[in-house]
Amino acid sequence: MKILVLEDNERLLNVIKNALEKENYQVDTFTDGDDALEALENGYNCFVLDINVPNIDGISLLELLRINHKDTPAIIISSNHDFEKIQKSYDLGCDDYIKKPFFILELVQKIKKLCVVQKKFLKFSDECKYDFINHILYEDESEIELTKKEILFLELFSKNLHHVASYEEIEEYVWEGEETNLTNIRAMIKRLRKKIPNEAIVIVKGMGYSLNKEVHLV
């Protein structure tokens, strides 16, 4: 799971980052709203946004991200206790609002409830399965090493198992917004197919990739 955290207090930002990484989340941190805006398309499962940050504030960023990320959980954290600010945050689609100061455990627990993979394993066959929680591929109980991009590709399907992942979606999520090309994507798929059943990944001509209907969550 990838989480974007926007907080201009660097000490608090580091505390949040360390706490979330201990829970095996991948965390990208930002102190400036403009920088966070540029990173929105990197493929996040959750947003944690402070209101009072340089340039684009957290509420404005929430409004912008809701254009293309309507269902991605977003939590506002702020020392601003103004009712209108709180109401506006909920009106724009925040899933929770935490007032500072707060216990880090409170934030971690809220994220766990909002950003959850209901099923733990992606099962390719009786012998081969991928552990979403610990990011480990198993073959007959032996661990198979995956690259970061291979892990991110599999996690594209954690919430919508059999959707078609377009080339653009793969570029945004797996390459984390960095420009790539179809040759690189195909090469990554080819390497991954050597680690899981070859037929598990299906090419949808002209659109992208999906998982075989036999693949399921357990």
Overall description:
The protein has two domains: 2-114, Response regulator (Rossmann fold, 3-Layer(aba) Sandwich), CATH 3.40.50; 121-217, Orthogonal Bundle (Arc Repressor Mutant, subunit A). Helices cover 34% and strands 23% of the residues. It has eight helices and 13 strands. The protein has a five-stranded parallel beta sheet with strand order 2-1-3-4-5, with helices on both faces. Strand 4 (74-78), helix 4 and strand 5 form a beta-alpha-beta unit. The radius of gyration is 18 Å and the shape is elongated. The model has no long low-confidence stretch (mean pLDDT 89).
Could you name the key traits of this structure?
5-stranded parallel beta sheet, Arc Repressor Mutant, subunit A, alpha/beta, Rossmann fold, 218 residues, elongated
The gist of it:
The protein has 218 residues and is of the alpha/beta class. Helices cover 34% and strands 23% of the residues. The chain is built from 8 helices and 13 strands.
DSSP helical segment count: 8
Number of domains: 2
In CATH, the topology of the largest domain is named: Rossmann fold
**Which outline best applies?**
elongated
Strand numbers in spatial order across the main sheet? 2-1-3-4-5
What's the level 1 CATH class of the largest domain?
A: Alpha Beta
Give the overall pLDDT as a whole number.
89
Q: Going by CATH, what is the homologous superfamily of the largest domain?
A: Response regulator
Write the topology of this structure.
Elements: E1 2-6, H1 10-22, E2 26-30, H2 33-38, E3 46-50, H3 58-65, E4 74-78, H4 83-91, E5 96-99, H5 104-114, E6 121-123, E7 128-131, E8 136-139, E9 142-144, H6 148-155, E10 165-166, H7 167-173, H8 182-193, E11 201-204, E12 208-211, E13 216-217
